[in-house]
């Protein structure tokens, strides 16, 4: 048996088949280019039509993404039919039926994140621009795609989380309501007039800059005895659509300190503890700030 002759015949046959299929491959490539152009144009048209509606930004992104996806699927099927004459969509479905289990395992994460992305975009709780805490990451939602969610951390870094992590995990939406509650703990020397201290702090909270008064209460509670002091908890509300929580807390600290000093109430040394949000720097205690300025 002449193996060289057989090998040569095989190579010649493959070369002739490739040359014969070149026109089909060129046409398929043209179809792909046209598909890219049509998908881009359709996305722009959809953006123009739904741009002035009251839909959520995530839902607008979902509509544009699905339009591009359907156009690409249709274009790829046409290109595959042209490039491979024996190819049919029915044959593709039959082939997937044979290896559906293997494909399912191979693309499990992709399908999972895809479905989670669609559900995230459809529900109206988390929106583009919301401040969230998810999987230990705190920041602002910049973009939601069909596979991942982009969160810009408050410190400036961009974190990309899989949609399945957002959808299945515990996600805290910090800006779901514009008004948020903040709190602070103080230790008051136990030899002072504690009722006077409570009343002074309550009045100061009501008049402090940035503290919401209408429809919200300002709470001051004595919580427990400490060594030589009594621990108080102060709680108030801030409208984050107008004011920064950390700035309001700093103003509250300054106002509380001045009011207590005027009333003759002494703070226990090192008594202030901050209940600030994760990732945010606490405002300086007035005494520490004064020492730093000196």
From TrEMBL:
Pfam families: MS_channel_1st_1 (PF05552), MS_channel_2nd (PF00924), MS_channel_3rd (PF21082). GO terms for cellular component: plasma membrane. Residues 218-267 form the Mechanosensitive ion channel MscS C-terminal domain. InterPro entries: LSM_dom_sf (IPR010920), MS_channel_C (IPR049278), MSC_TM_helix (IPR008910), MscS_archaea/bacteria_type (IPR045275), MscS_beta-dom_sf (IPR023408), MscS_channel_2nd (IPR006685), MscS_channel_C_sf (IPR011066), MscS_channel_TM-2 (IPR011014). Residues 109-170 form the Mechanosensitive ion channel MscS domain. It is found in: Cell inner membrane; Cell membrane. Residues 275-294 are annotated as: Disordered. The chain crosses the membrane at residues 20-39, 65-87, 93-122. It comes from the Bacteria. GO terms for molecular function: mechanosensitive monoatomic ion channel activity. Keywords: Cell inner membrane, Cell membrane, Ion channel, Ion transport, Membrane, Transmembrane, Transmembrane helix, Transport. Gene3D superfamilies: 1.10.287.1260, 2.30.30.60, 3.30.70.100. It is a multi-pass membrane protein. Belongs to the MscS (TC 1.A.23) family. Homoheptamer. Mechanosensitive channel that participates in the regulation of osmotic pressure changes within the cell, opening in response to stretch forces in the membrane lipid bilayer, without the need for other proteins. Contributes to normal resistance to hypoosmotic shock. Forms an ion channel of 1.0 nanosiemens conductance with a slight preference for anions. This is Small-conductance mechanosensitive channel. It comes from Croceibacterium xixiisoli.
């Amino acid at each position: 048996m002449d193996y060289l002759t057989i090998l040569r015949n095989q190579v010649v046959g493959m070369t002739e088949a490739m040359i014969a299929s070149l026109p089909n491959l060129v046409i398929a490539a043209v179809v792909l280019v046209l598909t890219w152009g049509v998908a881009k144009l359709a996305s722009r048209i959809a953006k123009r039509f739904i741009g002035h509606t009251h839909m959520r930004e995530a839902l607008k992104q979902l509509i544009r993404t699905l339009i591009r996806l359907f156009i690409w699927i249709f274009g790829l099927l046409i290109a595959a039919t042209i490039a491979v004459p024996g190819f049919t969509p029915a044959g593709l479905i039959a082939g997937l039926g044979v290896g559906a289990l293997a494909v399912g395992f191979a693309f499990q994460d992709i399908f999972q994140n895809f479905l989670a992305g669609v559900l995230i975009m459809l529900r109206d709780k988390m929106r583009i621009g919301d401040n969230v805490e998810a999987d230990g990451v705190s920041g602002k939602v910049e973009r939601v795609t069909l596979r991942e969610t982009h969160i810009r951390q408050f410190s400036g870094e961009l974190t990309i989380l899989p949609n399945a992590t957002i959808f299945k995990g515990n996600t805290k939406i910090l800006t779901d309501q514009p008004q948020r509650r903040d709190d602070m703990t103080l230790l008051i020397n136990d030899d002072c007039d504690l009722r006077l201290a409570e009343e002074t702090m309550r009045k100061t909270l009501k008049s402090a800059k940035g503290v919401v008064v209408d429809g919200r209460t300002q709470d001051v509670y004595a919580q427990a005895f400490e060594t030589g002091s009594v621990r108080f908890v102060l709680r108030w509300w801030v409208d984050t659509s107008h004011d920064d929580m950390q700035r309001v807390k700093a103003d509250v600290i300054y106002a509380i300190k001045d009011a207590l000093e005027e009333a003759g109430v002494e703070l226990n040394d090192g008594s202030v503890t901050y209940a600030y949000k994760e990732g945010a720097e606490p405002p300086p205690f007035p005494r520490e700030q004064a020492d730093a300025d000196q």
